[in-house]
Structure prediction request, 317 residues.
Amino acid sequence: MTNKPLIGVSSCLLGQPVRYDGGHKHARYITDELSAHFDFLPVCPEVAIGLGIPRPTIRLRRIGGDIRLVDGKDDSLDYTDRMREFADGLMPDLAGLSAYIFKKGSPSCGMTRVPVVDQPDRPRSYDGRGIFCEAFKARYPLVPTEEEGRLNDPAIRENFFERVFAWHRWQQLDEHSVSGFIGYHAAHKLMLMARGGHCYAELGRLVAGVRREDLPSRRREYIQRFMEIMAEHPDRGRQVNVLMHVMGYFKKSLDGHDKQELLRLFEAYKAGDVPLVAPLILLKHHLRVFPDPYLQTQHYLDPFPESLALRSVIHNG
Ligand code: SF4
Prediction:
């Protein structure tokens, strides 16, 4: 039994030879770097609906007001209903997923900008979404999803995994526990503050005075808004506000030299000269020397395993 978050993944990204031509699209970042921290659930929707390997290509085709999944050469071979039925049947088995990583550009799995053929002799538009991916997002709108290509962007990658672990922690909460709900909010205070102080206050109103009777509705409202807020990328100015807030907990313990050193690092981070991990390493060092029970609960300081090195790259948020 493992407690790693479970991520749904397009099978071809794990190196499985399931593509139309018998090949794969192995994403080494997923198998080499993520596998230490996550379990994977591979799904190839096209193989699952019996299209076989190899198989003719399929595409998204706008027909009337609908986008259909059809054969690459023959629009009359329409797989849309078969794909939707497969997705509907599988969805209950995906309830435990903490995230999904989809293969970009696929008419079944692609999440954004999938090509759609409007007229056979006209240029494609790039406003489609794979039929399977669409079904997943409709059923599980709060579960973090990304495409493997977008994960090459350091800001997107950091934000995605911050949300994945936050969602995973939510999944592990006892849904009947009022104190668990309140504790979840409190432990994400700094993470929410990095999106703006108003975010913590706004969600705090959903937690304040919660009773057992209204826990289910408060939880529903809370997590929907929480995940929306978490999808925002904190800018450097707000991150520095949080860093200063954390430093405030050491105001009696640190001498002038230590404080100056921290402030210099905050400035260097704000100027884009060092990544976020630089001031955080120093703050966490001070936290080890001067333990503070409140700060130690804050997921902001360790939102994901350090070895993922997600805060080690300079980016603009
Ligand atoms: S993109 Fe999706 S449907 Fe296509 S081969 Fe990969 S897993 Fe299968």
